[in-house]
Amino acid sequence: MSNRFDGKVVIITGAGSGLGFSSALQVAKEGAKLTLVDVNAEGLEETKSKILEAVPNAEVLLITADVTNEKAVEGYVNETVEKFGRIDAFFNNAGIEGKQNLTEDYGSDEFEKVVSINLNGVFYGMKYVLKVMKEQGSGSIVNTASVGGIRGVGNQSGYAASKHGVVGLTKNSAIEYGQYGVSVKAIAPGAIMTPMVEGSLKQMDPDNWEEAGKQFVEPNPMKRFGKPEEVGYLVAFLLSNQADFINAAVVPIDGGQSYKY
């Protein structure tokens, strides 16, 4: 097993399930000390339990926090520095899809909720983590955007707008902080079989969502959903020192689907 994260401190938001969990497990296997953040305390405990099954001596700090609350975000950053002394890598991942509807029918409250979590939460995380990394003179941030952040996604105005915003924040901060030894990049997942994607399919067809899933991936050149662990491998690489010179990039992981549009 690689030891790319021996002695390294990694924060992961949205760590209670999906891509946050898979990435946390991967970097823990490679020696990381972890701060895991999620609004779902039960999900965090389950993530920690699975990590300790795989890596019994892993150091894991759990923080239940709402990423839309700036003080809570400042708090998880400060708690990490107090416990571990530094922050080497940050997977800024927490997000939701929101309800599906035509733009004219998309609820204003729903739009604000999705943007608050997906965009404001990412901004707050970057704001406080970047300050720590600038002072250290090193660090790596990976934000979770989406293929919906590099092209349109029908019936998902809030999601597409927020993920396009994440791409913009990523590129902007990469320009600002590269001179301080900090790299900032984003991933753009496509259809990865996570609880969030399963929920989306159930919105499309509650009674036959698995069949809807088959139709959903038909345009994909690989004709399948991605696996959360495949994203975990990519995130671990991008967070590691091996990817220090990758800056301002938005890396699709979608089986090639985005290149068809």
UniProtKB/TrEMBL annotation:
Report the EC number(s), separated by commas if there are several: 1.1.1.47
The record's listing under Pfam families reads: adh_short_C2
What are the recorded GO MF terms, alphabetically? glucose 1-dehydrogenase [NAD(P)+] activity
Statement: the UniProt record of this protein carries the keyword Signal: no
Q: Which UniProt keywords apply?
A: Oxidoreductase
> Which family does the UniProt entry place this protein in?
Belongs to the short-chain dehydrogenases/reductases (SDR) family.
Protein name (record)? Glucose 1-dehydrogenase
| Organism of origin | Oceanobacillus kapialis
